[in-house]
Amino acid sequence: MKEAEVRLLDTNTSNQIAAGEVVEKPASVVKELVENSLDAGADSIDVTIFEGGTEYIRVADNGSGMSESNARLAMKRHATSKIRAAEDLTRLHTLGFRGEALPSIASVSEFELLTRTAGQDLATSLRVSGGKEEECLQTGAPVGTTVIVKDLFFNVPARRKFLKTVSTEGRYISEIMTRIALARPDVRFKLTNNDKEVLVTPGNGSLKDTIAALYGKSVARDLLPVHLNGSDVSVHGYIGKPTLLKGNRSWQTLLVNGRSINSPMLGKAIEHAYQSQIPKRGFAFAVLDIRVAPDKVDVNVHPQKSEVKFSDEGTVYKAVYKALADALTQPMHADKESGAAAAAMPSPAVQPAGFPGTPGAFAGGAGPAAFRPEETVLQGFGGVARASFHGGSGPRQEDGRPGIWRQPGVDYGETAPKEPVYTISETRDKLSAQETLAGGNAIAMQEAGEDGVLETIWPIGQVDRTFLIAQSEDTLYLIDQHAAHERILYDKLVLSHQDVPAQQLLIPLYINLQADEVDLLEKYHDAFYKLGVDVTPAGDTSVRVDSLPADVPEEEAEGFIREIGQYLQEHRTPDAAEMRQDVLHMAACRAAIKAGQLLNMRQMRQLIIELCNTTHPFTCPHGRPCMIAVSSDELYKMFKRTGFDLPSRNAKPYDK
Hints:
Layout: H1 11-22, H2 26-39, E1 44-50, E2 56-61, H3 68-73, H4 101-106, E3 110-116, E4 123-129, E5 132-139, E6 144-150, H5 157-161, H6 166-183, E7 188-193, E8 196-200, H7 207-215, H8 217-221, E9 223-229, E10 233-240, E11 245-246, E12 252-256, E13 259-261, H9 264-273, E14 283-284, E15 286-292, E16 297-298, E17 309-310, H10 313-329, H11 339-344, H12 424-432, E18 443-445, E19 455-463, E20 467-471, E21 475-480, H13 481-495, E22 502-512, H14 515-523, H15 525-530, E23 534-537, E24 542-549, H16 557-571, H17 576-591, H18 601-612, E25 627-631, H19 632-638
Helix pairs in contact: 2-6, 6-7, 9-10, 13-17, 13-18, 14-16, 16-17
């Protein structure tokens, strides 16, 4: 075989090869040009495209500009002002550094560059076609740089053939501009597509205002701030409440030292922080700027600089997870209470036996069977119970859970009198007289940013034996009783960091399963035993159940074990932490009160108090809502009363 001759490639061919890596599509062109504008110190950047960027792209900025000599040199490969030597790669403070973008773009398009520095009277106009310089002249122009790219990939038809539709390519550009704008809220961005304004940001330095401009005010209202200043890693930004979800990761923007990147590891950190708060197929909103020392991160691992490598991934993961976990818990804390409100909070007290919510009554051992149907049920306005949100701080009871209880009165004990049933007219009379039933127990909740003001909530009643209704002075609360109790039980199980408390069955239960399910249950016997489940094979297709988690009632045992078997079939080799979480989900769901179960007013009170003591009272462990708040403003809009004055708090009912 004849030896092949080795030869140097010409500059134009080299540029086109580089363009294959750097210029993947029109969005890549926009990204590289906008990043150059940011590196030049621009605080206003206008992008105009036609036909999805395939026919025309224009990026204009008010940055520092370039002299004629620098402009001509910038059209050569590996010519850059960002670094001087290889050592500079470990202390990068710019988005660009390779010196490949401009020559690569110019080699596959009709390229025009117009640039002027503040010290020049005239601007430099440079025109390049397919990598060959065709014209360079002096002309008038404002300070800054404007780049026009026409007929992209005109000389590489194979690459042009693989572009998506015009609308899809335009959407890619919009997405990349969104990410860059989120990284730099101090810069005003504008994107125009086919003469239609698609995107405009204020450029006032406020990330929240930028998010509102890009995603809408409704999204901005459901944001939680993220702040973590660590010695090695800092994390700042905003995440969405668990109800703010999308079916993919397009609402997640991850920035490392101001650079938008893709990172499966950081995606996992977000997913784990939201664990048990959102559905498995849901993705939360997140804009996170992670700052690490430049020498601790390598950005030179991908041609488009869309991926980075951390020297210590574990530290970054833990920092992001902690920052998000703190942000998600903070709105439920009552740590911003005023001194007077804090002084008014009761000291922890151990609940008496039989108190709804204690083991053997409501939230613990007996599960649904603990609800005593012989108790009289109130279907109207009732007594009030007082509590406040806690998310891991504040006083705690002897069982380790947050404690907010007053010293129980006689109406809480086993000797408490039966709750009366009121007729509709009696209920209305009491409402008119602003009376409450026996109580001294109102539910006080504190939302984030409310300056420590506690609002009192009155349980009102039950709808369709499934939903609870409660009210405060200016908010209506709708609560799913099953989802709420599920959250209560799940949080209680999670607090048992080691083995989950188990209940021994007096008579072992035998269940028929598929042979592979029996094998998997035997394989993971030790892991399930720590979760309160003692299951052993009793033949090829049956198992013997000797114990269950303490909260799971015996009548739910078979369904619970079958659900575990199905889970093992789907996962086969589950991760230990994930298996624990999923089994606790199953146990909480099986043990929780069911839709259609009748509750009396005392049980409703206690359910709301227990719910307010969980870390995340607005969502169940599967991510579904369990409590929805409807403000007075929203109610007035629903009834088209926005033009009326709000009623006085002293006004009598029914007088408006």
